[in-house]
Each structure stands twice: as structure tokens, then as C-alpha cells.
Amino acid sequence: MSAAVKSYAAVDLGASSGRVMVGRVGPDSLELSEAHRFANRPVRVPEGLRWDVLGLYAGVLEGLRAAGQVDSVGIDSWAVDYGLLDADGALLGNPVHYRDARTEGVAEKVWATVPAGELYAATGLQYAPFNTLYQLTAARSTTQLAQARRLLLMPDLLTYWLTGEQGTELTNASTTQLIDPRTRDWSHDIASRLGIDLDLFAPLRRPGDPAGLLREEVLEETGLSGPVPVTAVGSHDTASAVAAVPASGERFAYICTGTWSLAGLELDAPVLTEESRAANFTNELGLDGTVRYLRNIMGLWLLQECVRAWGDPDLGALLLEASKAPALRSVVDAGDAAFLAPGRMPERIAEACRVSGQPVPESPAEVTRCILDSLALAHRKAVQDAQRLAGHAVDVVYVVGGGTRNALLCQLTADACGLPVVAGPTEAAALGNVLVQARAHGLVGDLAGMRRLLVRTQPLTRYEPRGGTERWRVAQDRLAGD
Fold first, then answer.
1. What are phi and psi of 393, to 5 degrees?
2. How many other CB atoms are there within 10 angstroms of residue 256's CB atom?
3. Residue/partner pairs of 194-201 with CB below 8 Å, 24 or more apart
4. Predicted structure pTM score
5. What is the pLDDT of the chain when averaged over all its residues?
6. Catalytic residue among 237, 373, 385, 415
7. Predicted confidence (pLDDT) per residue in 340-379, tens digit
8. 268 noted as active-site residue
9. CA distance linking residue 254 with residue 245, whole number of Å
10. Would you put residue 418 in left (φ > 0), alpha (ψ -120 to 50) or beta?
11. Mean pLDDT within 241-245
């Protein structure tokens, strides 16, 4: 193994911002720095909510220019959304945003052909109205889909523009509800029954596979000297984030926090039972044959929307006031699809409390405390349910991603779960992205080796649970109407 330190550019695109990070990796070193950060603002046009994919691509190019010479580039992003290309490889319109209303009522049409239980048994994916399967069903009669000759998921679309080569990375493909998690290949039966042409998809790639070289035009625009390879990483940002969970052994749960909270376990095989489906757990694919068995929770989106409605007050001061507010006075279901759309979030949370007969939070601090208590409660239930459904006990919960900056949320999660919480790293998706590239180039070993390097090099904070969990159980029962 080479002792040289190498540099890797991690393009990490979230639902509200994008960033290009540079990771410098050696056999016993791992440093991450930010080269460029840019906004990701969807645009509402007459036909619906769309991603500004050209703005994102411009941000990627500017980030690569700021990153300087690197040994490889990898891209990860949010899941399910895609761009359609025509026969000449040109993009047919801006990609539709997963929060667009076009999939309302579509699931029932799909289930009329493939019942929900059969769909879960075949694909292992929890119901979410924006899954790619439902998006494609909603688009079935459109001119755009009729003209399309290729579908590329968001990271694969940007990779194509960088390299001119097309592929479909597996961890992200597993969020389409068209992959069989047992075979780690397409579910041809499901696609055939629903009239979805799998030839639209480019060949599957695995994390670590080569994804092409930066095109000459890209080298010229970014000032980089070629050849610069692009490496397939866990291109679903949660796959990259879970790869960067600094765990040892198998008895751990994780919560990837940000706009969403993804809470669950890392398993060797999917859990495809009807009980698992009813509990709304998903089986997404991870590195090295692993399965990310998790539940999607609305996450810090609730707080982000409230802060936006309040005119962006100082978040530190708001969290300090929230820490002093009465605990568990009111809670809402943080997984409720009623909170999915943007706008009027403080009023919608207040209304949910009113309808459920709980005290209505009024001040920003009270609403914030309601949100954080509700998220901790959702984390508790997800961790408990995952252990029960998978028969897999845990001793510790790892929190990674943007929520690690929220000490109150981390402490409340430890209290609610009755387990120690280890928080960090914050830039987990970017670190997982970097480490997969480094592994592909021989600098680090297997997944366990990647995690040992993270433990040695990244700052981590441990939160011990305070008191018993009885009050959290009572709040959970109250929310369930028991």
C-alpha cells in the first residue's frame, strides 16, 4: 500500500445545498476541507416544482476549480429523482423535485396492479409517495417520457456531464423501488408488470467502480490537469453517510441527520416481512453487500421550514431557549406525510397539536422544543422497531450528518433511546464518498478499516442518557392514541 497522501474531491449534494469537499487521505490520516458551497434552490414553474440542475452543475464545476488538482472525483446526492435524456444524450427538461405534487394518488394505481405487500416482498422499499417507481408511473403519458431514451439518477446525470459516460450506481438505484435487494439487481418482474422499460436505465455500477475520466472541456473549465478519473461512490448520500459511521462491531444503530432523519441498522440481508412493511421500514443497499434497514423520518426539515417562516433568527439562541422549555409538553408524528410540503410549518405543527388535544406551542422556542422532542421520539421508535423486526440488538446509537451540530437533539435522542449516542462526523456523506474513492485507489482497506480510520481522525462527542425512559414511553403512547 502506498504511503503517499492523495486528494479526492467529494461532490455532496443535499436537498438544500451542495458542496465540494476535498479529502486528503493517507494510510493513517484523513483530513476534510470545504472547497466550495452553493445553494440548491428548487424552482416552481407553471408545470410544478423542478430542480435547477444547471445551477447545480455550475456549482460542481466551480467547486472543482476551487478544489485544485485531485486524484479522483466522486458524486453523491439525494435519492429517487432523475433526468431524462433524448436519443442524442440531451436533457429533456429540468428534473422534477420529489416534493412535486404529481405523485398524489399514484400509489393506489400501482397497487391495483401489484399489491403493496407483493411490491414490498419483491423490492423491500418502504412506501414513500415520491419513490422513482411512482414518479415514472405519474409520467407515463407525458411527451417527455415518450421521447426519453435514457434515465439517469441525479448523481449519474452529473457524472455523465463530467465524463460523457453513463451508468446507474447501485446504492441509489436501490431507492427506485425497482431493485431486488436479495439479488442486488433489477426486479424485472415488477418492472414488466408495471410497464416500466428497464432499458431506460444505464448499466449498474457498484461503489468503487470507475465511472470515466473528466472530459477535455471540463478540464479546461476547471483548470485541472488530466487524466482525472471519476469514481462511483455510494452515490445515495445516505449510503455514503452510513459508510462513514465510526462504529466497531455490529451492535449499533445509526441516525443520518439533516433535512431527513434516516434511522436504522446495517444488516447482511434484507427484512422483507409483512410486519416490516407495516412498520414502514426500507431495505436500501449499502457498501460491501450490506443492507441499510431504516425508516425515513421527516428530520430537521421541520425546524428548517419554521426558521425560514420566522425570518431566520439566530439558531443558537433559539436552541438555548428551547432547552429551557418544558419537555414533552406536546409532540407530533415526525414521519407524518402532512409535513412533507413546504410552507406554513409553525401553523401546521400547532394545528397537529390542537387536533390531538395537546397544548399548542406558541413561541418559536416552544415550537422548536416540540419539534426536537418529536424527532427524538421518532428516533427512539425507529431504533426500537428496527431491533425487534430484524432480531438485531444494539448497544449504542451513532448520529452522523448535520444534526450532530444540534447538541440538544443529540442529548434528547440519547435520553429517548436510553442508549449512549456518539455524534460525528458532521460531514459523514462527504467522508464516506472520499473513503470509497481512496479504497478504490488502494489507500484504505475494507469497510471496517475505513471506520477505524474515522475513529482515529474525526472528532466525536458522546452523550449519555439521562434518567429513565418512562416519560418517553408515555409520550409515545400518547402520540399513538393509547
1. -80, 150
2. 28
3. 194/110, 194/113, 194/114, 194/133, 194/137, 195/140, 196/133, 196/136, 196/137, 200/148, 200/149, 200/150, 200/151, 201/150, 201/151, 201/168, 201/173
4. 0.94
5. 96
6. 237
7. 888 999 999 999 999 999 999 999 999 999 999 999 999 9
8. no
9. 7
10. left
11. 98
